[in-house]
Amino acid sequence: MLVALLPGDGIGPEVIVQAKRVLDAVCGDALRYEEAPVGGAAHKAEGHPLPPATLDLARRADAILFGAVGDPDCDGLERHLRPEQAILGLRKELTLFANLRPATLFPELADASALRPEVAKAIDMVIVRELNGDVYFGEKGMRTSASGRRQGYDVMSYDEDEVARIAHVGFQTARARRGKLCSVDKANVLETSQLWRDVVIEVAADYPDIELSHMYVDNAAMQLVRNPGQFDVIVTGNLFGDILSDQASMCAGSIGMLPSASLDADQKGLYEPIHGSAPDIAGQGKANPLATILSAAMMLRYSLGKAAEADRIEAAVAKALAAGHRTADLGGSVTTEQMGDAVLAAL
Ligand SMILES: NC(=O)c1ccc[n+]([C@@H]2O[C@H](COP(=O)([O-])OP(=O)(O)OC[C@H]3O[C@@H](n4cnc5c(N)ncnc54)[C@H](O)[C@@H]3O)[C@@H](O)[C@H]2O)c1
Ligand SMILES: CC(C)[C@H](C(=O)O)[C@@H](O)C(=O)O
Ligand SMILES: [Mg+2]
């Protein structure tokens, strides 16, 4: 089975190295790897954030392990050349519409959560984020307004098929868990959200066993902090899911802990930590590699049919944390590589 390794920028390569060490330990020769540049690194090397050969590798591979993109050196570039276009392009080109972002607190990290330990320990949820539509992919641009002022615009839109297909993923994810689905929208203000809510209710007819609720996104942001234990699965749009998942990560200890899977209709997937390239700590050995190591475990489980190996990795992460290993984001002083060592030792 072929895995595409796309390390990217900033801390991306640092965390990918650790995930690859763990994969080697668990899977040996069962996986083959090909690596390609992406993001700012690809722009510097080849003049484009998502070169054709990188996209081709992503298409050929059985699964993709992605680090992060984002490079301050690229700040002045036109939008289509910026590093972030690479991840947006991969999601769109490969129709990776279903983004699963599990937020679970490892019990050992109750002290690292931004919440009181007794509130934090109840977090055990999955955010199902739509990844191919919304304001991210609508018409956008700069124009001159009627009064002669500069005006930027980004059109937010969803069609009913896009909402229905992610709603099904939300219901099915809930069915495999505790049977509760909360659809998050802004239907009190936005037409896209009204359609979202209508379609989710229609799809719910196929899932009478699932308890469906609806919540406005502003309330959801508050409830995540007040009482995260009330959530089992959240299904939401691209923008709201982006924001709520960063917030959920701090409830679960750190943004350095949250993995993700971005899946197409056939479980082909791209796996990446939810965090970015973290230029503020890049090159300093401070990055927490666990989100990427846990993303590799998701890759084994969802795309490569290796659930037992995924279980082993997750257990090793828990053991490394239980043994007291903490990178700086978790209040410790362990380096990126030492955290990798700790997971390998636990394996
Ligand atoms: N999927 C992606 O590739 C992705 C995701 C988010 C942001 N980005 C990009 O990354 C760049 C930086 O964005 P940002 O600063 O807003 O978000 P970020 O997630 O990169 O960093 C936010 C904060 O969290 C910290 N952090 C992030 N990951 C960490 C880790 N593994 N261990 C310890 N600390 C960690 C950083 O040091 C920083 O203080 C931007 O160019 C942005 O567009 C890319
Ligand atoms: C880098 C950016 C385009 C991306 C997003 O907004 O989806 C990131 O924040 C994420 O969460 O993966
Ligand atoms: Mg994000």
List the SSEs and their pairings.
Blueprint lengths: L1 E7 L3 H16 L4 E4 L4 H7 L5 H9 L2 E6 L15 H10 L4 E7 L12 H4 L3 E7 L9 E5 L5 E5 L5 H16 L4 E6 L5 H14 L6 E6 H10 L6 E4 L1 H14 L7 E5 L5 E5 L16 H13 L4 H16 L13 H11 L1
Parallel strand pairs: 1-2, 1-3, 3-12, 5-10, 8-9, 8-10
Antiparallel strand pairs: 4-5, 4-11, 6-7, 11-12
Helix pairs in contact: 1-10, 1-12, 6-7, 8-9, 10-11, 11-12
Nicotinamide-adenine-dinucleotide binds next to helix 4.
Pathway: Amino-acid biosynthesis; L-leucine biosynthesis; L-leucine from 3-methyl-2-oxobutanoate: step 3/4
Pfam family, one: Iso_dh
GO cellular component, one term: cytosol
Quick description:
The chain is built from twelve helices and twelve strands. By secondary structure, it is α/β, with parallel strands linked by helices. The chain folds into two domains: 1-98 and 258-347, 3-Layer(aba) Sandwich (Isopropylmalate Dehydrogenase), CATH 3.40.718; 113-252, 3-Layer(aba) Sandwich (Isopropylmalate Dehydrogenase).
